[in-house]
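Submission sheet (multi-component)
Chains listed below:
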Amino acid sequence: MASSLNKPELLRQDGKRLDGRDFDELRPLKITANVIKNANGSAYTEWGNNKVLAAVYGPKEVVPKHLSDPSKAVIKCRYAMAPFSSLSDHGRSGPNRRATEISKVTREVFENVVLTKEFPDTAIEISIEILQSDGGTRAAGITTAAVALANAGIPMKDLVYAVSAGKIKDNIVLDLNMIEDNYSDADMPVAIAPRNNNILLLQMDGGLTKAQINSSLDKVINAGKIISKIQRQALLDVYKID
Amino acid sequence: MTEILIPGDLIEDKELLKNNRFYISENNKHYCTLVSLYNNRLIPLEGYWYPNIDETVVGIIKEVRNNVFEVDLSHFLRAIIINDFRNKLHFNVGDVIEAKVKAIENKKTIILIYPRLLRDGMLIQTKPVKIPRIIGKNNTMINQISSFTKTSIIVGFNGLIYIKGANSSMAISTILRVEKEAHTKGLTENIKQILQKELELTEK
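Outcome: structure written.
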């Protein structure tokens, strides 16, 4: 990571971002559902240069048994970056601090939307594998896992999406890529349940004022309409008959 | 109008909610919780089997104990057959059986009765939510497949289907086709035509 004194420019002379996007423009997003035959539900996402695979297994027996809850299902989440997913080292010696943290926050997102009381004494396993990373992988992971859960037939209150907002030179930007993530003034991944815009995840690196946070959330919710539409289309495409 | 709903979609027609558990209610509004087909009725396209009393299931014996047989129904609930001293049952691990649901104990254990051993034949697995379509209204679909292919078919509501007969490969491919196209219109008629064509080809 660079020190704050050694920041590269993140905006071009024409006022656009390095990859030519506007401040509130998302990277190209493509989601395909039902890609893994053996899983109960699965989805594959290409979001800019991010490539994410999510699979859902269960409800199934809880192992170890003492973790089971007689009143509801336990959600287990595993976020992992493939060793070849980025330039830095990942996944060579099991889960690291970062993967453990992201697994935890992702699990908490889905504990709020999945109707776990339908499946007492069972476990629902969500595996998120980052095949290629370019910033915003936790958001991409949550967006993909939501489609995989719906594809698995796990009852949910809502189809969650996630996207990150940030700040570059006092401008609020959406969907930060790796360079922006590393050198921007702030980075704030947000997960939202779109039906009533409940915030299920909000983390932040750097600093934002109250007004900037409100503005970021407005932009996230606007962009979320596009993401939700793509998630819906991915699920509808499963039932297309040639 | 046929439409596919996804989790979180508003269900406007309250008539659809009768005999349906695939929704949640908030502030007097109802929302879908599964990917479902909206077509005068709300039919889930993905999901799990929720056992009801008297439903037929097909399973595999996975454990034999003194007075209990544990049955694998490809389901997250445990299923057992109690071996009463009056009806001495003899099953081995790996036997395929047909049985009926007698009760669901504490939402955790399915008690099965009237087990019957299914010999030879083939076992396929389908999505439990597609079973009502595979059976069809008044058993039309399954009777049609069974009579055209001259096979005996036992459909378990848990998603396992047992097929026995000379033409079982045709029956399997037809059932898998019904599973895949369960949400399309005029499926019974389509399947009838496909079966007729295939039979003509095999007779030639």
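Remark: The first strand of chain A starts at residue 29 and ends at 33.
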